[in-house]
Amino acid sequence: MRFKPFTHLSFLIFITFSFSLALAQDPGIPDTVTVECKELVLPNSEFALETYMFTDSAVGGFNVSLTFYNSNNLDIYVDSIVWSDWITGFAVDGKLWHNESEGDTAKTLRFGAVWIGNSLPPGQGLVATTYFHTGPTWNSTLYTKVDTTIFKPPDVGVGFEFFDPDGVLYYPVFVAGCLGPPPTPHKPLFELPDAQEVNAGETVDFIVVATDIDPSDILTISKYGVGDFNAPPGTSPDTGFFSWVTTDDDTVNSPYVDTFIVDDGTGLADTGYVTIIVNPYYHNPILSLVPSPPYNIKGGDTLEFIVIATDPDTDDTLTIEKYGIGDFTTTPSTAPCSGFFFWASSLNDTLNSPYTDTFIVDDGSGWADTQIVTIVVFPYVPPPPDGDLNHDGIIDLSDVMYLANYIFKEGPAPSPPAAGDVNGDCFVTIGDIIYLANSYFGLGPPPRPWCLPGDVNHDGYVNIPDVIYFIDYLLTNGDEPISKNSTDVDADCKISVSDLVYLINFLFRGGPIPQPGCVNPLPPLAKARGEFAEINLNNFISVPSSGIIEVPINANFNVPVAGVQLEIGFDRKKVEVLNPVLSSRTKNLTLYHNTKQDYQLIGMFDINVKNLIQPGDGTIITLRFKPKSGSFDLSQIKIREAILVDRSANELEVTFKQGNKDFIK
């Protein structure tokens, strides 16, 4: 009796979840499932295939897949399956099933069993006989492989316990069946690239492809030689990926020959070779200038700098050439090769400024580097008298306002900027404003020579002429520096050759920046004993109607204060900064404020130096913010700097504290 053929794709009905369980290799051997081979199967014919099983332990369930692997020979159909007495005799509490699926490259019949309260005991024998028929297009000369699989339970527990999460899945030895005459084995073949040629430092990467006419052979590709290789085993075509990052050292043993071997698992193999040539990499020479650009000079100044060429190719002879103004002396040599640039400008050279000089280094092998340098010549402007910050020839209140606008309102800088250091302490702060106002009103000494660490010749800039001035002073009895604090760049409180070396290292070798010195031949600024100030920021006030937070800054000091400079840091992601407000204690002062990226700069003073903040404790200013997130606490703002100066422009010793526990939401 012929059963109706299966015509749709389906899978196991109630044991498919077992595939997610942990896998383990069954220690019992043998465990074998075998499908017979039939060398002759004709078109339009019926035939049967027998499946056998040999197991040495109890079986709680199995699944046999008869898969016909030949995409060119699929005209075959399942008619029925007949279970053996061995299987049916133990199927009282079990379930038997079978189904068929069809793909583009294979057809599969799956059948199996599972026992609920019983198990199949160890043994060997016939499992089932499967009946098929072929269609008219079946090719009896083609070889078609038939594969299998099986499941076994653990030694303890049978039936459905095998499929619990603690169950173990076992695999048997596969002895595949077949239809048609045994195939003639074919040797796998390589598709390898031609020789690879790279420069040192470059990456070699290519693909290796192995092919095999036998579609079921599993190809394994191995590599022997340099580089990394990744090629998981697989059926034809199997692909491997080669990669190798070369270095300069790899030129020593070049060329390299890598060997590739592909094995098809049946004893047949192919071998191929790829030659890799690593050529020396010729590096570009590199130009650098010391000190580095830009070069801005005043008419009449001398510009000097050193041009240095380096090259990792130590055998190359480097030649540096210059095109443009100035004198340049150099001699070709291996790396490092250097040249010296010298140009004594004149007052007339401001007419055609800026100038462009081009430097080119060639290594003799076709590699080069170019540096284009711009030289700007400004008209020579002599430094103003100390305190004349706006260059109008007199020192008056306009200079005081000029300095206040520069510090607090981003106004133009004094020329040179160092001229704003009116009290000669090497910093430009509110103390210089009060000092200059006192000087104008006759309440204090005249402006002192500014201090700019490294500005030995007192022109307001730190550059090569300062080195020349310093050498003349130390070695040839040249003029004494006007500001010795500017000259004591290593801050050891004396002027010596060590300061000269320090300055040269800064200008030419990237050394540390010059420090404010501690040599001061001028009378020190008077400082009253016991002057102190304490700044306190530990509370805030919420104004619910406007959403504004007000933070009062309290100050306690024991002498009248002429000016206050505050730097208030804030978290711009959390708060919006509003204008601060003077308190009743400071209402007669002029308020300056300027908001930067992450801080607010605040200044308050009376330009006439008449209104002072009287001693005592109380609020001097109220900061104002608007929270962006709806919440606020004092950790979102911070006093980063606080400078308080007395009537004589002396800085008070300041300490401040800030609370961070108050919170509003």
Topology:
Layout lengths: L31 E4 L1 E2 L7 E10 L5 E9 L6 E8 L1 H4 L5 E9 L3 E10 L7 E12 L9 E4 L25 E3 L1 E3 L9 E3 L4 E4 L3 E9 L8 E5 L3 E3 L7 E8 L10 E8 L5 E11 L6 E5 L4 E4 L3 E9 L6 E7 L3 E4 L2 E2 L2 E8 L10 E8 L5 E11 L18 H13 L20 H11 L23 H12 L8 H4 L9 H13 L22 E6 L3 E3 L4 E10 L3 E10 L4 E3 L3 E2 L7 E6 L3 E7 L10 E12 L4 E2 L3 E10 L6 E6 L4 E2 L1
Parallel strand pairs: 1-10, 2-11, 13-19, 21-28, 29-40
Antiparallel strand pairs: 1-3, 3-8, 4-7, 4-9, 5-8, 6-7, 9-11, 12-14, 14-17, 15-18, 16-17, 18-19, 20-22, 22-26, 23-25, 23-27, 24-26, 27-28, 29-31, 30-31, 31-37, 32-36, 32-39, 33-37, 34-37, 35-36, 38-41
Helix pairs in contact: 2-3, 4-6
Note the main attributes of this structure.
seven-stranded mixed beta sheet; Immunoglobulin-like; mainly beta; 665 residues; six-stranded mixed beta sheet; 4 domains; disordered N terminus
